[in-house]
Write a structure and sequence with these properties.
Elements: E1 2-5, H1 6-11, H2 13-19, E2 25-29, E3 32-37, H3 40-54, H4 64-72, H5 80-87
Parallel strand pairs: 1-2
Antiparallel strand pairs: 2-3
Length: 89
């Protein structure tokens, strides 16, 4: 991904409008990204992804096999310290 200072981006917007068709452009201020310029295709893909992620499901819709798989799930031992936090409550 290309990074460009805000002043450069505004001065040469036409150039970056072409570049963004090939790769996103991070627009920076004082060396830190303040925004990203992406193609319309990439933006639409992001919106579709966000809509998929926002979908929620009711536990009542889970199959018995899915419930069993969730119940059988275990955390890695490296996260035991988190279990200890729950025990304190």
């Amino acid at each position: 991904m290309r990074e460009v200072p805000t002043t450069e981006f505004t001065r040469n917007f036409g150039l970056y409008r072409e570049i963004v068709q090939r790769e996103p452009v991070a627009v920076t201020s004082h060396g830190r990204p303040t925004g990203y310029f992406v193609s319309s295709v990439e933006y639409e893909e992001l919106q579709r992804y966000k809509n998929i992620v926002r979908q929620s499901f009711s536990t009542a819709d889970l199959t018995a096999e899915q419930v069993k798989a969730i119940a059988a799930g275990r955390m890695s031992p490296e996260h035991d310290h988190l279990d200890a936090l729950l025990d304190d409550q």
